[in-house]
Each structure stands twice: as structure tokens, then as C-alpha cells.
Amino acid sequence: MTERPLPSIFELTPLNETYRVDPHTMLDDLRARCPAHRDPVSGSLVLTRYADVRAVVNDRGLWRDPIRAEEGAVMQRRFVTELDPSVPRTSTTSILMLDDPDHARVRQPLAQALYARVAKFKPEVERIIAEALDAVAGEPEFDLMARFCVPIPIDVIASILGVDHDRLGDFREWSEGVIQGLNPFRTPEQTAAMMAASEALNAYFTQAMAERRRTPRDDLISDMVQIQAGGADLSDDELRINLQALLVGGNLTTTDLIGNAVRLLIQNPGELAKLKADPGIINAVVEEVLRYDPPVDITGRIASGDMEAGGCPLRAGQAMTVVLRAANRDPDVFEDPHRFDVTRKHRPHVAFGGGAHICIGAPLARLEAQVALVRLFERFPDLKLAEPEATPEWRTLPFFRGMERMLVRP
Ligand code: HEM
């Protein structure tokens, strides 16, 4: 009998219908047959076991910058082709793809300012979510993605940054455009749309930074220009590209966390009943959604010297792709991993990655999802899917998992 070929990382995306409908059958099979798979198509070592994924993301000595990947690491190198060598690397590259010392230099002040804002932002998140719920009140049926899951993260980050109300429409449009920055398979048209949105955002941030220097406000843009004026080693370009990274990194992901959570809770009425009986367990509910149906499937690292991952030797420049979704369902770590159980005790998921690059927006995403879910089911305790038998309309953006549309009835 001939062995079935192993899937390349490109087949492990929602562009492939088999994966889109049921990613876990493919991932379980890959983890069982070849947990450290040298994928010739993407030119990277694909890791699916929890222990290997955790070890790689936590290793602060590894590289992230695709410019350091060997030529054969085609998936990572796709991000390099659009670079202009005459511009400093940190002017065009966000912390997502920087290595130390630049990564630490830029991330540390940004994280400090962002975390301080998030810590006092719950009332504003409550307000934004209440407004979104008011807007659908009385409607017999509506698309929860378009009316609730998509606008909330955009409005929240806009408010944190200090975007004026009359620019919110533009800001929402630009946010949609820059998302393509996360798509390694984007078409030339999508790249053009992304570049146009990015330029518009840059112009917006340039103007906003100049305004905040003259008249500081109570927002993150003011925080960052003040930190810079206070002596932090941060250029204007670095501020702009990293403020933009908060949009790119934070919108679709949080949208999908909320959307995936609502679908899972409606489809698991026993688990939803536990939340309704005690909204105090919302933290555990969101963590179980992050484990069970994470919005981001993969992240990556690059070997910085001779090393081993998943038992495979690597040399400097060789790329690793870690499949967070597969790690989160590893039976060696999670008992009965395919059971959605909001009372699960052991939930050390890797939905936010780990180590030096661990998601900077995790506290904000958690806050938004926690408030959104509690308030949604409070307002609409009998919320149901309008088409419960229909296959969910999963989006086809590679490496992200969320729905295009989800019709619900209050
Ligand atoms: C549920 C929502 C979210 C998920 C699942 C998610 C997931 C991730 C993952 C997997 C990484 C890479 C970590 C690694 O390589 O170890 C990451 C990094 C990042 N995320 Fe998130 N994210 C979410 C929300 C957010 C939000 C709300 C923001 C912004 C406010 C954000 C901004 C970023 C940034 C800037 C990075 C790069 C950090 C670095 O490399 O130092 N994310 N995120």
C-alpha cells in the first residue's frame, strides 16, 4: 500500500475546501504521521505537536525577520520581495517581523503604553458594545459578523488610538485594506489595495502625531509622541508602522474570536447554559474558545544557528512554521482535545504564540471578547443561528479562521 502524501502548508489553509470544512482531521493526521514535517513546497519545517510548538515560540534566541530566512524558505521570503533596500528596515517593518535589539527597543515602550490604556478601557469597551447591540435591537434577523463582530474591534482600537469620530468611516475602510498584509498569497490587486490603505493610514498618523505634539489628548497616539519626546529611541516611521500593526494584528483576529465563540456557544447549549448561570466564568469561556477554535492558525520562527526542533536538525536561516491550531488539540496535553469544555481545568493554549513575540494585543482581545459575549447573551438570551443546518461560511484568508457571515435571530 502506498502511503498518502503529507499535505504542504499551502494545503492547510481555508483555500482548500477539505481543510476549510474540517481542519482538525487533516491536522490530527499530520501530527500523528509526521509531527515535524519538512515541507518542500513552503520550504519550512512544519511542527504540529504542542511540546515542539511551545519550545519554538518560547525560544527568544530564534529569528523572526524573513530577511534572515534562506532562499529556499519560500513562504517567509514572500514578505521580502516588496522591500526597498534604501529604506531602514525598522521604518517599514513592524515588531511582528523584527528581531532584537530593534524588536525589544520598539516593542517595550509600545507595550507599556498599550497595556496602561487597556487596563482602564473597560468602560469604553462596554459603551462601544452597548451601542452595537442597540443598533440591532428589534431586528428579527441580522448578520452578527457585519453588525457586531467586525465593528467592535475596529471601533475599540480607533478609540484607544484617538481617531476622531468623523474619520471613523475612513479608518474602518483602511483597516480592512491593511489586513492583506497578513496574506502571503495576496494577488497584485490585493497588494495594491493594501498599499493604498497603508499610505492613507500613514498620512493620517503623520497628521495626528503632529496635532498631538501641539495639543496632547488622552489617547495612545499622544502617549507615543510623549514617550518619544521624553527620550525614547523611536523614529516617526517606527511609530507609524507599529500603530498600524495594532490595526493589522488586532481587528480580524478579535472579530473571529468573538464570532467563533458565539457559534460554538450556540452549538453547545450545555456550555452556554454554564455561562448564563454564572457570567463570572467568562474568562474560562474565552480561553477555551482560544484553545478550541483559535483565530490564527500559524506563526513562524527562523533558526539562528545549528539547532533541533521536533527531533530534526536545522541550520541558521532555515524556517519553521508552527501550527498553533494543531498544538491546541494535541491529545498528549489536552484530555479529550476535541471536546469544547468551558470548565476544562488545563488550558495552556498557544493561540497568542509565545516568547518575545507573544501577541501584544492579547489583553485587549480578551477584554473585548469577554465583554462582548456576556453582553450579547444578556441582551439576547435566546440567540440562535438563522440557518443552523448550513455549513458555516468560513472566510478563505490563509491561516485565519473566521466566518464571512453568520445570520442570527434574537
Ligand atoms: C484573538 C485575537 C488575537 C489573536 C488570536 C492574535 C494572535 C497573534 C499571534 C499568534 C501572534 C504571533 C505570536 C508569536 O509569533 O509568537 C500575534 C502577534 C501580534 N499581535 Fe495579535 N492576536 C490577537 C489580537 C491582537 C490585537 C487586539 C492586537 C492589537 C491591539 C494584536 C497585535 C499584535 C501584534 C502587534 C503582534 C506582533 C507582536 C510581536 O511580534 O512582538 N493582536 N498575535
Note the main sheet: 4 strands, mixed
Name the CATH class: Mainly Alpha
Q: Briefly note the structural class of the backbone.
A: alpha+beta
From the alpha carbons, calculate the radius of gyration and give it in angstroms.
21 Å
- Strand content range: 5-15%
CATH architecture designation: Orthogonal Bundle
What is the succession of H and E elements? HHEEHHHHHEHHHHHHHHEEEEHHEEEE
User: What small molecules are bound in this structure?
Assistant: protoporphyrin IX containing FE
Strand order of the largest sheet: 1-2-7-4
Counted up, domains total: 1
Shape verdict:
globular
* Overall average pLDDT: 94
Total strands: the figure is 11
Number of helical segments with 4 or more residues: 17
CATH homologous superfamily heading: Cytochrome P450
Low-confidence stretches: none
Kindly state the percentage of residues in helix.
40-55%
Instruction: For the record, give the distance between the C-alpha atoms at the N and C termini, rounded to a whole number.
Output: 53 Å
The CATH topology label is Cytochrome p450
